[in-house]
User: Which sequence fits this backbone?
């Protein structure tokens, strides 16, 4: 006799339809691809990014797959901007079920100016933490939710010339692991995805060079990472994909 659990195994997968979602850094790259994928599955998606022109372009694309999608400009390095973003989420969605913490900027070595270092840490670390805190407040009010933090394989690779950036991504890894333990009893999941080299505007090479690298298996596409976000979000509630690493086939670390 077939185990009855096998007959219903896929019925436990979580649906994204109707989920209230905020994607930070949703106007370009991984965030934009993720927002489009989730919106196409019926999620109620809001995106944010720093630049109005990029927001307009992303929304023109996003609303083709879901007319309820929206967004606004915000700088994740600014406490007032982060707080304003969540007030807008409340106005538009009522609350929040899913936060995709993705907004980040590339960075240099310790030779960067003090202002550049400070801004990078605010955007890449403090912004994640503030967004998570505000998301948790809302998720607690209705009994649960999911935070997906997008990190980077740079936390393992330790590329020379990017020490400050690498430090921020290592911080996000440890923050995610610890926050998951803090929130597990409250039905709030914290999931970490760390992509390797990905063809986005954060890369120094041109889009044409990126497409060639993708074809050679040396880079991921933003859509590859978006599919990973979809995967972790749609596992049964009992199942946390705690730490997912994605590498291009020809990237050794």
Assistant:
């Amino acid at each position: 006799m077939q185990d009855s659990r096998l007959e219903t195994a896929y019925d436990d997968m979580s649906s994204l339809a109707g989920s209230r979602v905020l994607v930070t850094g949703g106007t370009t790259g991984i965030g934009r691809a993720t927002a489009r994928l989730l919106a196409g599955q019926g999620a109620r998606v809001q995106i944010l990014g720093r630049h109005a022109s990029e927001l307009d372009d992303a929304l023109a694309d996003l609303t083709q797959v879901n007319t309820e999608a929206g967004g606004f400009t915000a700088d994740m390095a600014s406490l007032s901007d982060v707080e304003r973003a969540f007030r807008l989420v409340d106005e538009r969605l009522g609350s929040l079920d899913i936060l995709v913490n993705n907004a980040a900027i590339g960075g240099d070595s310790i030779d960067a100016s003090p202002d550049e270092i400070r801004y990078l840490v605010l955007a890449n670390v403090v912004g994640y933490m503030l967004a998570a805190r505000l998301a948790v407040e809302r998720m607690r009010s209705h009994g649960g939710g999911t935070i997906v933090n997008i990190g980077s394989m740079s936390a393992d690779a330790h590329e020379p010339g990017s020490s400050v950036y690498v430090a921020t991504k290592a911080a996000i890894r440890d923050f995610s692991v610890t926050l998951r333990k803090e929130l597990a009893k409250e039905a709030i999941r914290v999931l970490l995805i760390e992509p390797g080299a990905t063809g986005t505007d954060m890369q120094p090479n041109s889009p044409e060079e990126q497409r060639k690298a993708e074809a050679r298996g040396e880079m991921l596409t933003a859509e590859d990472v978006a599919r990973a976000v979809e995967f972790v979000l749609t596992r049964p509630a009992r199942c946390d994909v705690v730490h997912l690493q994605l590498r291009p086939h020809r990237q050794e670390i």
